[in-house]
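Your task
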Amino acid sequence: MKGRIMEKPMTWRKSSFSGPGETNDCVELAAAGGEIRIRESDTPADTLTTTPGRLGTFIRAAKAGALDHLGR
């Protein structure tokens, strides 16, 4: 495979709160090339890509309740 770069498979992680086994649908994260990939375990082909800083900002905002109005 001269001239082709082989991509290393990503290691997807899910929360320990999801429970054991593969049947528990949850959000999964993987780090790749300085970015964070996010997917829903029941639709793994659909992924979002962000940076660690932006993901941290989102998590802090969600914890602070800044996004609560979106569900209303």
